[in-house]
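Entry 12.
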Amino acid sequence: QVQLVESGGGLVQAGGSLRLSCAASGRIFSINTMGWYRQAPGKQRELVAAVTSSNSTNYADSVKGRFTISRDNAKNTVYLQMNNLKPEDTAVYYCNADYRSVFSRYLQVWGQGTLVTVSS
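Predicted 3D structure (tokens):
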């Protein structure tokens, strides 16, 4: 079945950079939107960035100018380049995809999450 696998999280100092990757696998007909969400302790999960199949992007105000989302449709992979990281970026980052199955059903899938920790 369809699943998302994230990688690239870790511990960095404020001002540093990380690149997250998320690869979708399984029986997928097409993927519409892929995105990254994050959830910090005691906080609600929030959208960080998303990119559509036509490469239209949107970002949370808190990360604009610092993060860049991109996708490789041939690989069914989405990336999040995170620059100038701040301690408030610390969270578990989850990949999400809205996709159409081979049975023409519109579905959504979440990755397991990857932890990003930014130290002061």
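Annotation: The radius of gyration is 14 Å. The chain has no helices and eleven strands.
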